[in-house]
Design brief:
single chain, two-stranded antiparallel ribbon
Amino acid sequence: MNMDEVYFCCLYGNNENEVIIRHIDRDPDYEAEMIALEGNFWNDHVLTQTPPPYTEDGELTLESVRRHFGPADENAPEIELSVPLASSLVRYTELQAEKSELNREVKRVENEMKRLQGRIDQLQWELDHADIVRLQENSGKAIDRVKQALSETYLELVKNKLAVNDTMGAWQLMFSTVGTNSELLQKTADKLATAYGNIAYTADKALGGKKYDNAREQLENISKQQLLIQEQIRQEQDKKKTDNDQIKEWEQKIEELGQQAVEIINEMVEDIIGGSSSDIAEQLSDAFFEAFQNGEDYAEAWGDKVNEIVADVLKRMLVSKFLEEPLGDIFDKYKKKWFKDGNFVGLDEVINSMGAFASDLNAVGEDFATIWENLPDSVKNMFTVTDEASREASQKGIATASQESVDELNGRATAIQGHTFSISENTKLLLGSVNLILQSVLNIERYSETTAEQISEVRLNVKEVRDTVNDIQLKGIKLK
């Protein structure tokens, strides 16, 4: 039979799902090589009755000799070995035994090293692909999903063939693959698309506090890698020919993993605070020195900046704790509505669902408002109301007032304007007098003997500020 490919099927279990199908393509180059070797063996050895040379190891050679010449003749005379040759033979036998034992130990160590490396690679993959691991935990592994869909489609199509007595078609299907059977490919792809379309929006996401809860798992992952690498080092050191370069590479890997473990928690701390220690130091120092240069209360400016930083932390933590997960549930809900089994339902359906979508978002807002109202005043006071917001609130209050209230306010405003004008005129007179007084005071101070004392006091104040700044630089700021 001159065929270019072959399929073979093996039913290895006790049910129809435990079946494998393999495909082999013809290899003309390999065929030509085998034919040439067979021709050489036939012409040079079989026809000439010349045994081929032994090229295998000693055990196979002895086994071949025994099969060809039969077992040893027990009645044959004994061959006496000389003392040196006998000693060498005994030593050879001992060395052969030691070699076999060492080979078994080397094989065991190599297998153990491969197992350790495989586990390390798996742990590193899980660390680098946290989203995929999370998706596997919530919705199963993609490879299992593919295998299940393919198995179900095979079974479904075979049953359909047998239902119409198409036995030949069923057999052909069993020997087909997704690469050669378009129907099998399309139906399996449909099943997978439906499965992926039904996976929740939040399946691969860490919302709320979960993104910080995963830190412990990541640290344990890194610790396991370090321990397994250390075991590899120990195994390598136990070898007679130790690969020191490989050991050095593994030791460096342990150090890199240690740094990675430190960075995991540090990055989460910075994510919570909203920046690194250098970032926060820059914000606080800017507020301090800007206030000092403007002649303002630098301690108050520092405190205001601290309140701003803390308010930003509180805002992000409140959002993570009380908004991310409820909003994730809403996204899950509308993903199912808008993409049923992975099929988009259309823009009209999305538009028609906007009322319910708005209601769901507002419900989350109402819950969040209730949570906010129940927070301690010490927390809410961290969030300051801007002057612009206060003005807007006042404008909204006037806009919603009754006409009688507005008339009364207008009357009061007119009276206030009259008083304000009188105060303004009197203030002008006072300012004139004050200017004269100030001029006299300045002339007096120019020749006052207290000038030196005032300069000393200024110098003292400057020294205190400098000392305070130095303390900040050396000791830092402790936030309570």
